[in-house]
Model the fold of this input.
Amino acid sequence: MSNDLGRATRELMHHRPGKKYTEVRDELLDWLDGREETPGEAVAIMTDPANEILCEDCGWTVGMVCPECSKGCGCETDCTGWRHREYMHPDDLA
Done:
């Protein structure tokens, strides 16, 4: 895994400008902790634009955006759009 980790860390560094190699490697190792993905798969997931945070308040990502409401995220509690039914906790929908 050492070679895979090194390659993946170098690839991830392209997406983390200004960060040191050890910082990026530690970020990757933290992400991998308890998961089954390989380092290469982890980098693909971590750098996928759909996984970028859309809203810091509710934690929804770009891939979760709701096209049916003005806020487009989980902060909009009055929207009955399909994304809200898919991603919100059942207690929040009651």
Summary: Residues 62-93 form one domain. The radius of gyration is 17 Å.
